[in-house]
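FORM 12-B: Structure-to-Sequence Request
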């Protein structure tokens, strides 16, 4: 029949939004590891979000350790991973008061994700908002680390940080494509408090740092 699309193999099949986001996430991680420059990340993300088929997506991660992403219907090529020696971690002394560094990932796709109340903040947060919003309220959070690194990816979505007055939140430069970064905290910084370093990517989205609706100091009432 005339007018039918020419599909000669799995690479000609149409990819989905989930496929594009999976590749985009791999690219962002590669840039965070220093494997891609910001200009390379921007170029590849542009191609990724305009991709129509799996054949369009496949080259984007071909030269990365995690790639290329498999095409449905094709065997996944075996990868030879060089062996590496991982040094043993020294035991933590009994009664040590040093908090254990850990990473927590918070991601939403076409939805909302919220954290609030008494929740423990890890040393590193990886936050992704894709066509959705993430709200992190640190007003009553338990913070044991001196420095908190927050890696953000806001793609057609928003990430909002609700932070008490007196907290040092540093909005670091990052790739922004028709996106907004808003820092609305004011007043003096409380000495000795934690430092939040917010960094990452904004594509047609926004990152906002604001105080609570009912302002309160870092020490409470």
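FORM 12-B RESPONSE
SEQUENCE OUT:
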């Amino acid at each position: 029949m005339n007018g039918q699309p020419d599909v000669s193999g799995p690479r000609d099949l149409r990819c989905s939004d989930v496929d594009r986001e999976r590749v985009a996430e791999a690219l962002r991680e590669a840039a965070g590891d220093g494997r891609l420059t910001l200009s390379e990340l921007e170029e590849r993300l542009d191609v990724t979000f305009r991709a129509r088929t799996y054949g369009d997506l496949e080259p984007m991660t071909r030269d990365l350790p995690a790639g290329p992403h498999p095409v449905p219907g094709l065997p996944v090529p075996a990868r030879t991973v060089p062996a590496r020696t991982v040094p043993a971690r020294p035991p933590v002394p009994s009664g040590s008061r040093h908090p254990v560094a850990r990473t927590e990932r918070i991601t939403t796709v076409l939805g909302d994700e919220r954290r609030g109340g008494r929740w423990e903040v890890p040393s590193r947060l990886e936050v992704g908002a894709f066509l959705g919003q993430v709200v992190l309220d640190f007003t009553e959070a338990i913070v044991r680390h001196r420095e908190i690194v927050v890696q953000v990816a806001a793609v057609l979505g928003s990430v909002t940080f609700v932070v008490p007055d007196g907290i040092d939140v540093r909005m670091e430069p990052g790739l922004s494509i028709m996106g907004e970064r808003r820092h609305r905290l004011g007043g003096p910084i409380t000495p000795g408090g934690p430092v939040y370093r917010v960094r990452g990517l904004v594509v047609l989205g926004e990152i906002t740092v604001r105080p609570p609706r009912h302002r309160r100091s870092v020490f409470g009432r």
